[in-house]
């Protein structure tokens, strides 16, 4: 789009009076001083993409020495006299709806147009220009980068948790207009639009914008004292989003590299007291994203992406945690608030599980060997730690599940079973999902060890423990899917739905930063053993919708993994791998209620938040069920 000068962001009154507006909310000082109601400010998004057609044409005419068009809408300047081939000109006859075609020459038409008598035509005979005649040339229209930024704002910012709900809410957002942000937004938008349209030229242009933001950030980091931390961190995180958006075989590892870079930048500010007030929370989020991306990367290099114990050794799976990771965790433990301390306690458990998962994939394990038994013991210990962590959470960290009394209120494709979670804030919601995917995979590893290593697992994972693992997976998978509206807003959801779903306060800073990890978590929940078929189908539809709305290539790949699991092309351990004893199997109804029968160790049927609990709860608006804390008593 041609640049026509920076648009004033002042209120209408100050712009009319041509005075400086201080843009104070809700009323500017100038209007308050003269005791006049302030008319408010223009929509920031409309300013970014405003139509400057008339100004462009005026400037062009001034530069070319062409006078302004007359009232007739025709050029009033003289035209060169040239001989041209006849051109058919359509004119309307006096009959209603009738037209006639007269053949004349372009020169004759020009002469007729330039005739002085045309200036004194009656008003009724003056012809208005059609849209085709007033349409701007292509070079004056919105550029691909402008379209990409608009796409990014509409699909990666507006409406997501922790982000503005409307374009008007973006007004005055400082980071939105920085050079780094505009380049990376254009890069992500172009890559996404390329995925959806198949236009490879857009992907090439996306790489150019990506290269520009790399150069800009590298240049700004040479003098760390002048770094705008908010802008740089946002740009680096969205660079990671770019890596999972553009098409490539393994998008997660490059994204993880950017996340590590963001963590290194933030950690360099925190010890000096120069970081943001919630810097420790931000650093913890980056650490969680790193370990989730590490676990997610295993599936891209594996022929069996839905298995925890592959059929053959996969030497390319790297479970190495960055050397600085322990330093970052130490910083967080020293600086984290008491309210966020549970997240600092969880990150170490998750990191140890990812290292164990990499060990299982990269080394050969023999049934009956001590090393194989050691792997199973470590998985059991991690699961016990995750269970204990879950049982401790209450108060601020409690999770409440709600549903409305009208079963048709929410679109079925957007909200699972009409249920949704309410957390204190979105940061806590993200941390809970990290606990869920880790525990799902830990129990999946235990179930797969039963079929792969029967001798090693027999004394460690008896039938009762297998049933507990299946019930735990079913519950946590469902909780993961029920939590989706807290993190991602389906396009079918409206403002009326938002009044229920927006009960969770903001707290995670950047909405789109949580989407790649959420897609991985949905895939884990959908492909875990024992998950009901309808939950898998719902998860697949959500991931496919995310791809259609964002163009994020990672969503397309993960949807294929889920589809393969549903088709049985990549089987994982299932309920059939549990002991063949009739008492060891769980019916789908019992699993949805999280265990209706008593197991051999004496823990009885109840649980929290299961679908089977709602039969006796109809008619309440909304229905609330505590699903956090106290669950360890069942298991």
UniProtKB/TrEMBL annotation:
Q: Does the keyword Nucleus apply?
A: yes
Q: Does the keyword Nucleus apply?
A: yes
- The chain positions of domain Zn(2)-C6 fungal-type read 10-38
What highest taxon heads this organism's lineage? Eukaryota
Q: Which residues cross the membrane?
A: none
Q: Where is this region: Disordered?
A: 62-138, 569-608
Question: Pfam family example for this protein?
Answer: Zn_clus
Low complexity compositional bias: what residue ranges?
90-119, 569-595
Q: List UniProt keywords, sorted A-Z.
A: Nucleus
What protein name applies here? Zn(2)-C6 fungal-type domain-containing protein
Q: Which organism is it from?
A: Remersonia thermophila
């Amino acid at each position: 789009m041609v640049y026509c000068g920076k648009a004033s962001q002042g209120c209408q009154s100050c712009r009319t009076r041509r005075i400086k507006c201080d843009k104070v909310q809700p009323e500017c000082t100038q209007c308050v001083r003269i005791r006049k109601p302030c008319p408010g400010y223009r929509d920031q998004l409309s300013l970014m993409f405003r139509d400057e057609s008339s100004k462009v044409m005026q400037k062009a005419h001034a530069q070319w020495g062409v006078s302004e068009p007359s009232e007739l809408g025709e050029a009033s300047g003289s035209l060169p006299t040239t001989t041209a081939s006849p051109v058919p000109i359509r004119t309307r006859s006096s009959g209603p709806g009738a037209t006639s075609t007269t053949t004349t020459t372009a020169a004759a038409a020009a002469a007729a147009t330039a005739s002085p008598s045309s200036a004194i035509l009656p008003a009724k005979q003056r012809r208005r220009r059609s849209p085709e005649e007033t349409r701007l040339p292509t070079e004056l229209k919105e550029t691909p980068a402008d379209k990409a930024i608009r796409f990014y704002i509409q699909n990666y910012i507006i409406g997501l948790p922790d982000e503005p709900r409307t374009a008007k809410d973006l007004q005055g957002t400082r980071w939105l207009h920085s050079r780094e942000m505009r380049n990376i937004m254009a890069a992500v938008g172009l890559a996404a639009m390329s995925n959806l349209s198949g236009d490879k030229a857009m992907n090439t242009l996306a790489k150019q914008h990506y290269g520009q933001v790399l150069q800009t950030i590298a240049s700004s980091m040479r003098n760390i004292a002048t770094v705008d931390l908010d802008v740089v961190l946002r740009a680096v995180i969205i660079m990671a989003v770019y890596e999972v958006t553009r098409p490539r075989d393994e998008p997660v590892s490059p994204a993880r590299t950017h996340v590590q870079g963001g963590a290194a930048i933030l950690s360099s500010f925190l010890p000096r007291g120069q970081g943001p007030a919630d810097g420790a929370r931000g650093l913890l989020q980056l650490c969680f994203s790193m370990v989730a991306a590490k676990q997610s990367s295993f599936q891209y290099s594996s022929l069996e992406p839905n298995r925890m114990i592959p059929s053959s050794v996969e030497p390319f799976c790297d479970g190495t945690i960055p050397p600085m990771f322990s330093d970052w965790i130490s910083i967080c433990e020293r600086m984290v608030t008491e309210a966020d301390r549970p997240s600092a306690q969880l990150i170490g458990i998750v990191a140890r599980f990812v290292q164990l998962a990499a060990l299982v994939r990269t080394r050969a394990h023999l049934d009956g060997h001590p090393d194989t038994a050691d792997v199973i013991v470590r998985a059991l210990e991690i699961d016990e730690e995750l269970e204990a962590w879950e049982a401790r959470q209450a108060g601020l960290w409690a999770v409440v599940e709600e549903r409305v009394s009208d079963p048709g209120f929410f679109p079925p494709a957007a909200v699972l079973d009409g249920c949704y979670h309410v957390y204190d804030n979105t940061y806590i919601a993200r941390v809970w999902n990290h606990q869920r995917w880790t525990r799902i995979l830990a129990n999946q590893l235990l179930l797969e060890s039963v079929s792969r290593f029967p001798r090693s697992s027999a004394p460690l994972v008896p039938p009762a423990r297998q049933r507990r693992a299946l019930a735990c997976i079913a519950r946590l998978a469902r909780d993961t899917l029920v939590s989706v509206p807290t993190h991602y807003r389906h396009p079918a959801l409206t403002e009326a739905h938002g009044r229920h779903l927006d009960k969770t306060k903001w707290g995670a800073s950047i909405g789109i930063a949580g989407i790649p990890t959420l897609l991985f978590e949905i895939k884990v929940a959908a492909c875990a053993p024992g998950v009901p078929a309808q939950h898998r189908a719902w998860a697949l539809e959500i991931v496919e919708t995310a791809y259609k709305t964002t163009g994020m290539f990672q969503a397309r790949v993960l949807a294929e993994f889920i589809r393969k699991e549903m088709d049985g092309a990549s089987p994982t351990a299932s309920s059939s791998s549990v002991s063949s004893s009739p008492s060891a199997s769980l019916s789908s109804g019992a699993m949805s209620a999280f265990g209706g029968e008593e197991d051999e160790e004496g823990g009885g049927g109840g649980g929290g938040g299961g679908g089977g609990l709602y039969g006796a709860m109809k008619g309440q608006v909304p229905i609330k069920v505590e699903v956090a804390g106290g669950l360890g008593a069942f298991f």
